[in-house]
Structures are given as C-alpha cells and as structure tokens.
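Priority: low. Protein: ATP-dependent 6-phosphofructokinase. Input follows.
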Amino acid sequence: MRIGILTSGGDCPGLNAVIRAAVLGGIKQHGHEFVGIRDGWRGLVAGDVRVLNRSSVRGISRVGGTILGTSRTNPFEGDQGGPANIAATMERLGIDAVLAIGGEGTLAAGKRLSDAGIPIVGVPKTIDNDLDATDYTFGFDTAVQIATEAGDRLRTTGDSHMRCMVLEVMGRHVGWIALHAGMAVGAHAILIPEQPRSIDEICDWAQQVYDRRRAPLIVVSEGFRLEGMEEAHSHKGLDAFNRPRLGGISELITPEIEARTGIESRSTVLGHIQRGGAPTGADRVLATRFGLAAIEAVHQQAWGQMVSLRGTDIVRVPFADALVGLKVVPEERYHEAELLFG
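Result:
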C-alpha cells in the first residue's frame, strides 16, 4: 500500500513524531510505502508530494513544527478540489490512502472526504486539547510547559516590582491551557472562556494578593470574555476561515486593574511561542503511539476513523464522534482551581 501523510491546520509540537512513527511502523511491520503531502490539503489537491522513507524521518521526533508544511486550505474549493478530483489525483500518484493529522477543521474535512469514498484515517492534533473524543492531544503538554515557564518568569519580575502580571495564553473556545498552566504556576486568578467574570471580581482577587504584600499573577485564555461581553476580544481581523483572530484580552484587562486598584500592572501575550520549539517527552510519546496506531488502522482499512487516547489506551473512534462538540473545562474543575484564587 502507498500511503500519503499530511499535516493540516495550525502547527503543533509532536507532528514530526507522528510522521516518524507512522513511516517506520508501516515500513517495518507491513512493507508499506509513504509519500509526504506538502502543506496539508493544498498538497493533496495539487498533487504536491515528496517521498518519505527511513532516512527522511530520522531524528525528527524531537523537532517542533512539521517537515511536511501545513496550510488552512479547504480541499473542496478551487478547480482541483472536491472528492472526484482528489480521487483522480491520488490514482495518478498511486496513493492508496491518506493519513490526515490535524484538528477539528482537518477532521471535519476528512469526514466529508471519507463519506465521499476517499480512504482516510485521522490523527487528532491541537494544543488547546479541545477535541471531545480523546482525553488528550499531543502538543497540549508542551504548550502548558511553555506557559508555566513563562508564568514562573513573570512571578519573579512581578515580585521584584510588586506589579500585577497578566499572562495571556492560547485557548479560543476552551481554557485547558490556562487552567493547567495557571494551577502549575500558582496563579492568583485563572480566566477562561467557559467562565465569564466581572472586572470587579478580577480586581478584588488582585487586591487581596497585593494586601498580603504579594505580586498578583493572573493567567487568561485569549478567548475569555468579561461579563457583559457578547464575543471574545478581537482587533486583528479575520483568519482564513473568516473567524476573528483572537488575542489582546490581557491588554484590555490590565489597564483596568491598574486604574481600579492603583496596582502597577503589566500584560504579556504569549502567542505562537506556545506552538513552537521541541515537544516535551510526554508529547513525543503520545504522538509516537498515535502514529503507530494510525498505521495499523490504515493497514486494516478502518476508513473514516481517527485514533484516540482513552485513559492509557489508544482506541479508534469515527470522525463523527470526534466532531460532536468541544471538550470544555467542566465547572467542577474550574471551581477546584478557584479555591486558590486571591
């Protein structure tokens, strides 16, 4: 079997580990051949591929990003898009199946193509950890580790000047990164999309900390909304999917804290730093297990399914189950952390 591998959507630490495991596992166990599809769905539509063999994946599991490139191309758009054209391109290139590694958008496109008869198996990828059909996704642990290190550094400079430090992390719809990093760093408040809070409540938490002669540290998800805000803060236009490009909620909150409390305050937007660099050991292991399991699914022609982590086991779930809804932070998890606020 000749298998095409693509990475689509946002980049994520651990993508290369999936590619390496899939190629090595497929070659050693089953004698499959592999091609890398360049730049996600764009490469599948355009027929832009490169050969993947043992030497081309040597040592890449520790490297961030993706050796195949990525994009946010819609495979159903353009003159070459759509299932019929893609099937013809795959036949021309001798590709028997596609291993698609990506998040919600990638898996949604994979489901549509699979429903139309394209043989596809998926691997879930998102640093936000927001896919409901898997307990964890690779990239999340790395993002939390980076955010935790940033929070630790902000604590020391905040303590030196007795400033309130506000750290903004990624999380469009869910607050898993903020929750885990905030708990790890001992934040005095954690603000997530699932739990709107008033500016008065946030200032009260900061004031309680300051009154104990401590420097407040607040961790906020980019998708957090103050009470009364109908949409998440955005001032950067739209992305490729016509969604608002988030970022900057910390820059809205920070001056309000200073104005209302008199505490000198600073904000830091961590941004794409959370996506870059080498994956943690935990993410390398999870990504490797996903890659090996995905090749087994391809070998057994389990089309229209993705691999998933349930407990400590790797299982398969249909694309449809992966797209039912987002995995939000449960209220009890947030209230658990809230006991330590202020």
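The chain has two domains: 2-127+279-322, 140-276. The two ends are 58 Å apart (CA to CA).
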